[in-house]
């Protein structure tokens, strides 16, 4: 526990469990390894994701919080900012140094004062409002832009699938 | 791990009678490590962090984590006021939290009319003395509550055990000797004040000030001059040898590649310079700092990788691994078996068409190293027969070429062993175990090193264990 990264993760875990933000649960998969977390995110209300509960996996680097974790959904997600393999692509998860997409402001990106909670809240609002400027899933982005109804239908299907219905 | 559950945290206040202390405490904690500020420093953009945290962050990207201003670590200045506030708060915290919790319990107890529950939870507080005290306070407060429904009167109490700074109106203290007198008299007194009791005043202060027991106080007695901050080196201009020498001079480990030494030196600067920002009473010795560097070495430095693999092994899912890699193992086993059956005869056939295979494999590593991991294939060979029978094709499709190459190799080695006329059976088994090594190429990614390849031995054994 002398490891500052593990210590900080434990603190975050504690504060997340004693004061959880609405619609979000997160914690390490096992307490022996603080660097792999699982999170459950509720689909925001008023969106096609409503009613769904989406499991995701967070992998933290050894030098956390200097570098951001990686986040990956463990269910099928049809969303402009989620890769087909489930990996989430939003600005808060990108270190400020490299900007592969050249569209994010430095202030939106990862910094050591961000936290798991802020990431998960950002992801939740990303579900509600996709950013189609630089999509990770181009097909989903196109569908979202041009055929919104169809997009919502696919999303709802995934929601049902994720609930095992 | 259990002890870490006690990690104090600002959310401790949420469920108490003083939820407003939650943001207060959060404000006294570093935003990076979420601990109470430790040797806080203020940046040129006026943000405050632990010295070590901000130094590490600057070493990583040179920017303020809060506002992204470019920072330089030699512009950091100790934030003494914050240091003091944090220290005081930490002193007051346990008691305050205890009271706030007790208060909440009482409230709920009264609401529910459930005295039993309250008592039960009271006894959860460990120290007998403390409990008694809280109880007496509680009862006192209950009485007061009965009169006026105002609970926060308690705050007045806290002044009692303070340093007696309270003065009646019209009375002031001499700022030098701390003596109380009428306000008008202070100025006159100042002219003649010898400051005689100044040392006394200060000493009482430092008595209350130093919350750190024994060991640290003793250290204070032998005051050392404040250590000087060390500056970064120009790593690009420095030759490896010079850097190594420099590390030796400083007295920190000097092994490893140049890059590792550079990272180690940067971390050393972080640790050392942050210690320079510490209050004298909590300043650490070099020995301790070197120990901290060692911790870094184990988690992020040169020994990090081996450590990681140990962690992996601890909760390694042996049977799962065995299942998912079964076909690989089967291939290996099949090859090893084949080779042991006919190392020489096949060798003759294949030498013809396999010139490039030989060329590829010719710079063979020292056979001694192979001898050092004896008869693994043999022990695995007999056990997983059952696996093999329902298993996949014995020969992998993808590694045909390399298979030939290694077989070649194995045979070569066997010959070599014979030539050495050490005709013990062990030698021939070492020959038969070459295939796994040859297979490294088709299977392995360059980043995977030895540990992964010593795996096959383990899961198979484990599978056996599971079976029994």
Layout: helices, strands, pairs:
The complex is a heterodimer of chains A (165) and B (468).
Chain A: H1 4-18, E1 24-30, E2 33-42, E3 53-59, E4 70-73, H2 116-128, H3 138-146, H4 148-162
Antiparallel strand pairs in A: 1-2, 2-3, 3-4
Helix pairs in contact in A: 3-4
Chain B: H1 21-27, E1 40-42, E2 48-50, H2 51-61, E3 77-78, H3 80-112, H4 115-122, H5 128-147, H6 154-160, E4 171-173, E5 180-182, H7 183-192, H8 198-209, H9 214-221, H10 240-250, H11 258-276, H12 286-299, H13 304-314, H14 318-324, H15 326-341, H16 343-353, H17 355-361, H18 367-371, H19 376-382, H20 385-389, H21 400-419, H22 425-432, H23 434-438, H24 440-443, H25 450-454, H26 457-467
Antiparallel strand pairs in B: 1-2, 1-3, 4-5
Q: How would you describe the overall organization of this protein?
A:
- Chain A: This is Ubiquitin-conjugating enzyme.
- Chain A: It comes from Macroventuria anomochaeta.
- The complex is a heterodimer of chains A (165) and B (468).
- The longest helix of chain A is centred in the N-terminal third of the chain and has 15 residues, at 4-18.
- Chain A has a four-stranded antiparallel β-sheet.
- With 165 residues, chain A is of the alpha+beta class.
- Chain A has one domain: Ubiquitin Conjugating Enzyme.
- Chain A contains four helices and four strands.
- The termini of chain A are far apart.
- In chain A, helix 3 (138-146) crosses helix 4 (148-162).
- Chain B has 468 residues and is mainly alpha-helical.
- Chain B folds into four domains: 2-37 and 79-160, no CATH class; 163-207, no CATH class; 240-312, no CATH class; 316-467, no CATH class.
- Chain B is built from 26 helices and five strands.
- Chain B has helices spanning 21-27, 51-61, 80-112, 115-122, 128-147, 154-160, 183-192, 198-209, 214-221, 240-250, 258-276, 286-299, 304-314, 318-324, 326-341, 343-353, 355-361, 367-371, 376-382, 385-389, 400-419, 425-432, 434-438, 440-443, 450-454, 457-467; strands spanning 40-42, 48-50, 77-78, 171-173, 180-182.
- In chain B, the strands form two sheets. In chain B, strands 2-1-3 form a three-stranded antiparallel β-sheet. Chain B has a two-stranded antiparallel sheet with strand order 4-5.
- In chain B, helix 15 (326-341) crosses helix 19 (376-382).
- Chain B is flat, with a radius of gyration of 35 Å.
- Chain B starts with 20 loop residues before the first helix and ends with a helix.
- At the A-B interface, helix 1 of A face helix 2 and helix 13 of B.
């Amino acid at each position: 526990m002398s490891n500052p990264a593990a210590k900080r993760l434990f603190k975050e875990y504690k504060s997340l469990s004693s004061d959880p933000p609405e619609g979000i649960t997160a914690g390490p998969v096992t307490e022996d390894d603080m660097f792999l977390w699982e999170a459950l995110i509720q689909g925001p209300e008023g969106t096609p994701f409503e009613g769904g509960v989406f499991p995701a996996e967070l992998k933290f680097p050894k030098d956390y919080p200097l570098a951001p974790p990686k986040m990956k959904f463990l269910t099928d997600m049809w969303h402009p900012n989620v890769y087909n393999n489930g990996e989430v692509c939003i600005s808060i998860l990108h270190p400020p140094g490299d900007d592969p997409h050249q569209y994010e402001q430095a202030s939106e990106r990862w910094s050591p004062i961000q936290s798991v909670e802020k990431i998960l809240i950002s992801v939740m609002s990303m579900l509600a409002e996709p950013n189609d400027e630089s999509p990770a899933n181009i097909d989903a982005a196109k569908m979202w832009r041009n055929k919104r109804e169809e997009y919502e239908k696919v999303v709802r299907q995934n929601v049902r699938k994720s609930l095992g219905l | 791990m259990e002890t870490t559950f006690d990690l104090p945290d600002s959310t401790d206040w949420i469920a108490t009678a003083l939820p407003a202390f939650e943001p207060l405490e959060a404000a006294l904690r570093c935003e990076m490590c979420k601990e109470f500020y430790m040797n806080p420093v203020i940046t040129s953009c006026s943000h405050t962090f632990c010295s070590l945290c901000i130094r590490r962050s600057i070493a990583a990207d040179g920017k303020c984590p809060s506002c992204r201003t470019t920072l330089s670590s030699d512009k950091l200045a100790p934030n003494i006021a914050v240091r003091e506030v944090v220290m005081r708060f930490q002193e007051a915290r346990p008691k305050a939290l205890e009271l706030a919790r007790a208060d909440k319990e009482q409230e709920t107890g009264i609401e529910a009319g459930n005295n039993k529950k309250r008592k039960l939870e009271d006894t959860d507080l460990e120290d007998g003395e403390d409990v008694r005290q809280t109880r007496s306070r509680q009862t006192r407060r209950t009485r007061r509550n009965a009169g006026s429904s105002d609970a926060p009167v308690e705050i007045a109490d806290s002044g009692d055990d303070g340093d007696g700074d309270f003065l009646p109106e019209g009375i002031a203290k001499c700022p030098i000797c701390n003596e109380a007198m009428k306000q008008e008299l202070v100025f006159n007194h100042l002219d003649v004040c010898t400051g005689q009791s100044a040392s006394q005043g200060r000493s009482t202060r430092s008595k209350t000030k130093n919350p750190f027991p024994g060991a640290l106080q003793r250290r204070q007695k032998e005051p050392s001059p404040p250590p000087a901050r060390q500056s970064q080196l120009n790593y690009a201009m420095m030759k490896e040898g010079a850097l190594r020498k420099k590390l030796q001079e400083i007295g920190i480990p000097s092994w490893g590649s140049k890059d590792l030494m550079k990272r180690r030196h940067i971390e050393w600067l972080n640790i050392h310079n942050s210690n320079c920002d510490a209050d004298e009473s909590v300043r650490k010795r070099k020995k301790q700092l070197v120990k901290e560097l060692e911790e870094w070495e184990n988690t992020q430095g040169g020994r990090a990788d081996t450590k990681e693999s140990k962690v992996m092994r601890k909760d390694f899912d042996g049977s799962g691994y065995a299942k998912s890699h079964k076909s690989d193992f089967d291939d290996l086993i099949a090859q090893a078996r084949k080779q042991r059956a006919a190392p020489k005869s096949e060798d003759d056939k294949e030498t013809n068409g396999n010139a490039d295979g030989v060329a590829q494999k010719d710079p063979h590593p020292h056979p001694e190293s192979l001898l050092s991991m004896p008869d693994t294939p043999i022990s695995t060979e007999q056990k997983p027969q059952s696996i093999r029978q329902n298993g996949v094709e014995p020969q992998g499709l993808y590694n045909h070429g390399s298979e030939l190459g290694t077989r070649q190799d194995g045979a070569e080695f066997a010959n070599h062993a014979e030539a050495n006329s050490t005709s013990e059976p062990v030698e021939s088994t070492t020959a038969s175990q070459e295939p796994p090594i040859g297979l490294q190429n088709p299977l392995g990614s360059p980043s995977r090193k030895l540990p992964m390849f010593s795996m096959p031995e383990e899961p198979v054994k484990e599978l056996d264990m599971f079976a029994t």
